[in-house]
Specification:
Layout: H1 7-14, H2 18-43, H3 47-66, H4 71-89, H5 97-119, H6 122-125, H7 127-138, H8 146-175, H9 177-182, H10 187-209, H11 214-228, H12 232-256, H13 262-289
């Protein structure tokens, strides 16, 4: 007879490790912020901006490492500064692909410069500096110290609070800028706020999933929720829920299978949810488009 394992005992054992508690605490806040902001990124068709800011995160981190300052200063500072530049260059603070692509190329050039500086200085030759660069690329949520995790959680919760404060007019402006502007909604100001939120979220999410996989945490939950419901206020919180569940599931999988990177598990679950949502929506559409059966 097979012995059954109490799920509560398994969870208690999982959370008995300090690094797991730190990862779950910071990861939950980061995923919540990424899910909320990511839905608006998808809704506004600004997914390319998330991709650009993921490279900004890496470039900013390299700049911080090259000049010997706190890595998070480069992450947050670089992402916020470039987000404001993209908003300023766009029409009504809504950057198009040309603006984002131009900034993208400029940021990649800066990244090459800072990488050269980093690798030719003492900070780039040591193991600590090299590991920091790899962690920025692929994420290091299991390696966060308690102080780093607390800082990231506070920053992420700050994003959530600001989003809640401006969420209704931001969604209105994202759905129909012309009508929102006619109703007196400050569309341009909200555009700047939106890009700052994306920049801060990119900086903090890089700590969890890395610059290379950042776009997945922003786009997959938002895309899945958009497939499942057409109600924006429901979809935005559904996106947040999908992101949080993906974070929890990915961290649990990484704990159960130590050779699996946490970022892979997190993004694997998020992408899987999106594919299921897409399949469900496609099935509903096919059924809805079938001609009604004729009665004999």
């Amino acid at each position: 007879m097979m012995a059954t394992v109490d799920p509560l005992v398994g969870i208690a054992h999982l959370l008995a490790h300090p690094f797991m508690r730190t990862a779950f605490g910071a990861g939950t806040c980061i995923a919540l912020a990424a899910g909320l902001v990511g839905y608006v990124v998808v809704l506004r068709g600004q997914v390319f901006s998330g991709d650009a800011l993921s490279h900004v995160a890496f470039t900013g981190a390299l700049a911080a490492l090259a000049f010997g300052i706190d890595l998070r200063v480069g992450l947050y500072g670089g992402c916020i500064a470039v987000a404001l530049v993209m908003a300023g260059l766009g029409r009504r603070a809504n950057a198009d692909d040309t603006v984002i692509g131009s900034v993208f190329a400029w940021v990649l050039g800066l990244g090459a410069l800072f990488l050269s500086i980093f690798t030719t200085t003492r900070s780039g030759t040591g193991g600590v500096g090299s590991n920091a660069g790899v962690n920025v690329l692929f994420g290091s949520i299991f390696g966060l110290s308690s102080s780093q995790a607390l800082t990231d959680a506070i920053v992420a919760l700050g994003v959530v609070l600001v989003f809640v404060a401006v969420g209704r007019p931001l969604l209105f402006a994202s759905l129909d800028q012309a009508v929102a502007s006619a109703r007196g909604v400050p569309v341009r100001a909200l555009g700047y706020v939106f890009f700052v939120l994306v920049g801060v979220t990119a900086g903090v999410a890089t700590q969890a999933v890395g610059a290379l996989l950042l776009l997945g945490l922003l786009a997959a939950p938002g895309g899945a929720s958009q497939q499942l419901t057409s109600r924006p206020f429901v979809a935005v919180w559904l996106s947040a829920g999908i992101a949080v569940v993906s974070m929890w599931s990915g961290l649990t999988l990484a704990y159960l299978f130590p050779r699996m990177p946490p970022s892979f598990g997190i993004l694997g679950v998020a992408t899987g949810v999106y594919l299921v949502a897409f399949a469900v929506t496609s099935t509903r559409r096919r059924r809805g488009s079938r001609p009604a059966a004729r009665t004999p």
